[in-house]
């Protein structure tokens, strides 16, 4: 992705792990975790 001129600033923003299947989980500032709910009725932007 970084080889393309539009992808020069691309970076990974997360990882896929087995401990949280089919969920998006954010790490809090205190080291805990929080499940991020899918917005109902809203479309998500394509970031891939």
UniProtKB/TrEMBL annotation:
InterPro entries linked to this entry: PurM-like_C_sf
Highest taxon of source: Bacteria
Name of the protein: Hydrogenase expression/formation protein HypE
The organism of origin for this protein: Nocardioides bruguierae
